[in-house]
Amino acid sequence: MITTPLKIRGRDIVDADGKRFKLASVNWYGASDEQFIPGGLDVQHRSSIADAIRRMEFNSVRLPYSDEMVLLNPLIPSELLSANRDLVGSRALDVYEAVVNNLTEAGLAVIINNHITQATWCCGINPCDAGWSNSYLGGLCRVEQTEDQWIENWETAMKPFVDNYRVVGADLRNEVRGLWGTMKWKAWAKAAGRA
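The line above is the sequence of Endoglucanase E1; the predicted structure tokens follow.
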């Protein structure tokens, strides 16, 4: 069980007791995909999944989301929540928040991950998902966003967790890459700093 808050001591992350906290993470896919929620909520209750992660001796979960999930925040079909009946009638962001809360209540650390712009299985050669913003592509993308919009999505996604000390990290963007090797790393460093 993680004792919070975490802090940095030299090169180590330490917990509230001053003990080294070494991340042993699992990735819980799904909220970045077309169904807009973490996978398996039709099969197991989210608290059972959190308990299983702890039993397997992981102490943290990386939880991806897509910008499209944040922007659309769709109503989730009840059949995708058949093992989580208390969430039927919820929107994507509410389901995401409930999953994070169950994970942290189980004592797990959570790292929120902005995985992709357009909700899809990650990460092909689609230039619309190569970076944090894609508005320079001029209408080519199904989900178009500027850097400012990307940051606004982060703020929306993180707002429910501002006082949750077990949400310990922000993976700002999965696999940032340029179009066919043209990544401007200084632009990414600036955007990451702003975010």
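Note on the example: The two ends are 29 Å apart (CA to CA). The first helix runs from residue 46 to 55.
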